[in-house]
Q: What sequence folds into this?
């Protein structure tokens, strides 16, 4: 049974909510509550600071969860989450979520594996020492794996630039480089992976 079908055992009885681009989904400091599962679109998690700046934490997409950390810990939400584009989620209360996990060891294992993947993706996105083209390649591979298809749709250039910690102009140069190498083609806000082998080679390079 695939991941989506396994999570359906918990989320099938929940409600479906559609968020518009830029709409807040979860707020840092709010009490634990619903757990969301992304069906379509992308959600951006950030850590807001008193001076108005924000630290990027991660992007989550199809099949991934939001709000599960506070549900498990019982603590307040630890991040702001905003819809990057039109984003559809399934929603259940934290009681239902925990009850479903409690009787399903497979789902518990999947949740732990997913959290490790989130951590790995975040580290990859934030590492500048690999170079912007390499960092972008790693990020696109991670996002495409989440999407389940060889393309990344709906994420604006500015968001990708913020994820990588670069200016939009610098991101544009990296996108152009990947395009020249034949790894991707772009028609914003859609990035098609046209040669995964080349993209993986660039992800491992220092260029």
A:
């Amino acid at each position: 049974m695939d991941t989506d079908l396994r999570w359906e055992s918990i989320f099938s009885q929940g409600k479906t909510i559609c968020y518009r681009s830029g709409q807040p989904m979860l707020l840092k400091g709010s009490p634990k509550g619903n757990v969301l599962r992304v069906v379509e679109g992308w959600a951006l998690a950030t850590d807001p600071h008193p001076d108005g700046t924000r630290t990027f934490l991660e992007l989550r997409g199809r099949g991934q969860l939001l709000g599960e950390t506070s549900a498990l810990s019982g603590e307040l939400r630890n991040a702001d989450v905003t819809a990057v584009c039109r984003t559809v989620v399934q929603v259940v209360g934290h009681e239902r979520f925990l009850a479903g996990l409690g009787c399903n060891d497979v789902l518990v294992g999947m949740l732990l594996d997913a959290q490790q993947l989130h951590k790995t993706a975040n580290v990859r996105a934030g590492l500048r020492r690999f170079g912007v083209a390499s960092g972008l390649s790693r990020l696109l591979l991670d996002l495409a794996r989440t999407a389940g298809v060889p393309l990344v749709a709906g994420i604006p250039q500015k968001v990708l630039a913020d994820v990588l910690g670069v200016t939009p102009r610098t991101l544009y140069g990296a996108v152009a480089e990947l395009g020249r190498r034949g790894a991707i083609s772009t028609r914003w806000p859609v990035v098609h992976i046209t040669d995964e082998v080349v993209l993986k080679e660039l992800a491992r390079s220092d260029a």
Summary: Helices lie at 3-11, 68-73, 94-102, 105-126, 132-147, 157-164, 168-180, 196-204. The chain is about 45% helix and 25% strand. Residues 178 and 184 are 6 Å apart (CA to CA).
